[in-house]
Amino acid sequence: MTTIRARRFPSILRGALLASALALAGLNAGHAAEGASAPASAPAPKVLRYAFRVAETGFDPAKISDIYSRTITPHMFEGLYTYDQLARPARMKPLTAAAMPETSDDYKVWTVKLRPGIRFADDPAFKGKPRELTAEDYVYSIKRFADPAVASPAWSEVEELQLIGLNEYHEQVRKSGRHFDYDRPIEGLRALDRYTLQFKSNATRPRLMEVFAQGDLYGAVAREVIEAYPGDSMAHPVGTGPFVLKHWRRSSLMVLERNPVYRERFYDQEVDPAPDDAEGQALKARFKGRRLPMIDRVEIGVIEENQPRWLSFLNGEYDLIERTPEDFITQAMPNGKIAPNLEKQGKHAYRTVASDVLFTVFNMEDPVVGGYTPDRIALRRAVSLAMDVQRELSLVRRGQAVQAQSLYMPGTTGYDAAFKSDMSTYDPARAKALLDLYGYVDKDGDGWRDKPDGSPLVLESLTTPEQFQRQIDEIVQKNLNAVGLRIVFKPAKWPENLKSLRAGKYQIWSLATSASKPDGQDSLARMYSGQIGAQNYARFRLPAVDKLYDEASHLPDGPERLKIFDETKRYAAAYMPYKYRGHRFITDIAQPQLSGYRRPQFWLNWWEYVDIDPDAAAKFKH
Q1: 194 and 106 belong to one structural domain
Q2: pTM exceeds cut of 0.90
């Protein structure tokens, strides 16, 4: 995906410039009323303000893959289902659906009834008429993932559902080069009537509806809107959700406001939290019966460097710092508790174990580190053994992560806290022995190991330019140099690196990923050949793993399926297409005026569940 990027200010200035940027856009940066001409009695709008650490790419659900864009979209677009904000463990519930789905005994046919009367946000594409959400909107929206012209990075996920006729038509259009006919009936994806949607799969799919509970990707779009802005759908998001986009300065500022035609939806739709969940019980008691959303506007900046983002929060420019930078965690949370000076200011912290994983990926198609021969496997395993991950986690990440042992993430099926593997092993002596055994020795006497054929061996890794990542790169470089391996880092902005990753034009990169649903199959997708170009960043191909992936897709949850996940862990450690490094602790800190915050486990929509109380902030001002 290509995004025109605005000229960037130096990061240290961005927080300070947010207010002036909003002023230039004709918007109010603070919590005061929106204009001098507003009546004196008009209540001040409730504004949530925070900053992303990485820039967004756009807001067309079918075209995005980055978590920052995906954080925005579920607040504008709504899927059939979502997850209960208070339930732990995660529990799916209806959103635009009227009830939970009906499914056949073999999990091949799924039927969903929509709630009548849900409206899209107003847009000129509707020519001044209210536009109701219908089953056909979901049919159209899901078909867009199959349209080769859309080039959706999430197509492989829909493709795996094997909806009858959809994959075949996608392939037909791709080969012929013809336009995708959205009016063509697809047996596996039909609107039975105005409010009834039916999915039919060629295969058993027990978790099919978990896919469509990802409102950030599979929220309904209106065909009229997509057709009204040809080639510009990323900048014209129109959905049925609680917020609408009012202003977008690419890679710098996003402003969303309450959707004025949003339906009646209340906090008391939430189920009762578990009896031992004191935080959940308190939130339920405090907000029960409140209409959603409770705030009027959300303003999001982009500050990539940790220091200015942290200082902007301390200076009161933001209501929340989402993911307190590791550089400042000891200052913010000494001994795991919020610092006394911050507590006196009314700030409150939320610490959770994230359903995510830090990993280093090797391009299996690369002529240096890729391949399945013993020497290439030995090289990747030697790199893994040479990396002192605990040093990264302790020094750079300030202890805000635990070492990962496998591809599976905390809170998802397949994850086992008791499982141990070589993923966490730091053993430079073994790394040297492996390299020696397979011919990676210094043949020309320059002090660096060469390839088995005698040609120079230089590893290349993508990276990003911020100071935090440079600290990690320095550790990796020192580790690899210690076993005689040279590595060169190639810095670029994160979105550019992501494009290289998707295209397979890289050798090594270190990044992280988060779970989007409770099932661990998404993690296994990173080793499934059908996901090459999508979730399989390593471009790994192994028939034995593909077979296990297919078996796991068909099986219901249970011991037999968990056994498959355990077997895939051994393949991951043996072939090492990924070096899994850590699972992070995430600490979010809020100003006193922000209430109701609770970090979601897998879903990304949470703005509608929080409130802003300016009076609360005033109590702590001196």
Answers
A1: yes
A2: no
